[in-house]
Design a protein that fits this description.
single chain, about 450 residues, alpha+beta, Hypothetical Protein Tm1070, Chain: A, seven-stranded antiparallel beta sheet, four-stranded antiparallel beta sheet
Length: about 450
């Protein structure tokens, strides 16, 4: 349970500039927002199945529900696609369209429900893109002669290379291709209850394409009492990932199944965009950015990220892969680059006038913390960079090679961050906030750890 002192804090103060004392003080008084974004909230939301329409004997209706747990309004675009990857026009309350744009207020929700406008059943899938992380569900309702008979609800998913699910003869399967410029191939492998191979099929999906089926359509010889395991895998990893979803069907009843996407590797494009959007939203709310820089994600096989003046941030997927087990480590790397953007846009290097990298470290740590990430992750980021490249820094900043001492050792950089956190937490006005943060997020760390109240131990 979050302590009362943490939840009661106010976040109404505006940061005029990113000085150490002001930025950290405001951050620590805004910790009511820390950790309040659910792990299920994403900026890229994939719904591998939707269905609408039909005759009176059996009609389908799809309902999208979006919940905004953030402090900023969400700007959302919901794209609908048919099996061939073409736009699928559907009436969700504002007329027929394949591209639905709407907003979700901070702390609010929105519901979009299909109007069952087609006499034939339409199937497809959907992608939602949001400016801040959203929770979402998609619900499928079956009606007979206008009377609702069943409804099943599922959460959106993310692209994966492997998907595993319980299987029976009537299992419903949906698979979609999230790539807009290339087809993907997937293998569907069926095992029995003892893990013995039963059969395999391969599917090829066009760009943004989709397929859905019941298992018995492709494995017609299965006995009625069959049960086992379904595995969906990319036929060409790691380039061709996919999104998938399964629906349990048993003697006319339908129910949800646990998410089956593999834990490893994560979907790096979506993770980068999610972390980036949280960091940028935090910076814009605090008023430390004049405008949002452009984000470019690159597949270049180089562990790197850089900021170009105040206009652009480039993140290589290789960097995300290096720190793929920790979103907070990725958040520090991205927020560090946003720190350089702040230096350019506001001509502000006030957190460390002697070194732009130390200054960006401090700014990045503060932004990542307020965005809901763990500031201790800075240690993991710098250490992994050091292991992979021999130094605790990225190859370029602002598109140019830096002086040899610009990135220093990660021990030096971490010591500066440690001193900053301890100094600010020694201020009487923020001691309670530091104690509350540590009691919630790191309750078992030793007293000497940063974000403690009081002076640094001698």
């Amino acid at each position: 349970m979050v302590s009362q002192s943490l939840t009661a804090l106010s976040c109404s103060v505006t940061i005029p500039h990113m000085t150490v004392r002001i930025s950290l003080s405001i951050l620590l008084t805004c910790l009511c927002a820390f950790g309040q974004i659910p792990s299920s909230a994403h900026t890229d939301l994939y719904f591998p199945q939707l269905a609408d329409g039909g005759d009176a004997a059996q009609q389908w209706q799809t309902t999208f529900t979006f919940v905004n747990p953030c402090l900023s309004e969400a700007r959302v675009r919901l794209f609908l696609f048919d099996n061939d990857g073409k736009p699928l026009a559907m009436d969700l309350g504002n007329g027929l369209a394949a591209d639905h744009t709407f907003t979700v207020p901070a702390g609010g929700s929105r519901v979009l429900r299909s109007k069952i406008a087609s006499s034939a059943i339409q199937v497809g899938w959907a992608i939602a893109r949001s400016s801040v992380p959203l929770q979402a569900t998609v619900a499928f309702r079956v009606l007979e002669n206008g009377v609702a008979r069943q409804e099943i609800t599922s959460q959106p998913t993310l692209p994966t290379l492997v998907y595993t699910s319980f299987a029976n003869r009537d299992l419903g399967v949906a698979i979609a291709n999230a790539w807009s410029d290339m087809p993907v191939r997937v293998n569907v492998v069926l095992l029995d209850k003892d893990g013995v191979f039963v059969g395999q099929r391969q599917f090829s999906l066009p760009p943004l394409g989709h397929t859905s089926f019941n298992l018995m359509q492709y494995f017609p010889d299965l006995p009625d009492d069959f049960y086992g395991v379904l595995q969906i895998t990319s036929a060409n990893p790691p380039q061709e990932d996919f999104v998938a979803w399964t629906l349990n069907a048993d003697r006319g009843m339908i129910s949800a199944l646990p998410p089956g996407a593999a834990e490893w590797p994560v979907s790096h494009w979506e993770r980068i965009r999610l972390v980036y959007r949280r960091i940028i939203d935090t910076a814009l709310r605090l008023g430390v950015l004049r405008y949002e820089p452009e984000l470019i994600i690159s597949n270049a096989p180089v562990i790197n990220a850089f900021a170009w003046k105040g206009d652009l941030i480039l993140i290589n997927v290789a960097l995300s892969e290096l720190i793929s087990d920790s979103p907070s480590e990725l958040a520090f790397a991205i927020a560090h680059e946003v720190g350089h953007i702040i230096q350019w846009q506001l001509n502000d290097q006030s957190d460390d006038p002697t070194n732009p990298e130390f200054d960006a470290d401090i700014k990045g740590t503060m932004l990542a913390l307020l965005a809901g990430y763990d500031p201790y992750a800075a240690a993991g980021t710098l250490a992994k960079l050091s292991m992979a490249s021999g130094r605790a820094g990225l190859i370029t900043q602002f598109g140019e090679q830096l002086a040899p001492d610009a990135h220093k050792s990660f021990n030096t950089r971490l010591e500066r961050l440690y001193d900053t956190l301890v100094a600010v937490c020694s201020e009487p006005t923020v001691q309670d906030a530091c104690k509350a943060y540590k009691s919630v997020v790191h309750p078992h760390l030793p007293p000497a750890a940063p974000l403690k109240a009081g002076s640094r131990l001698k």
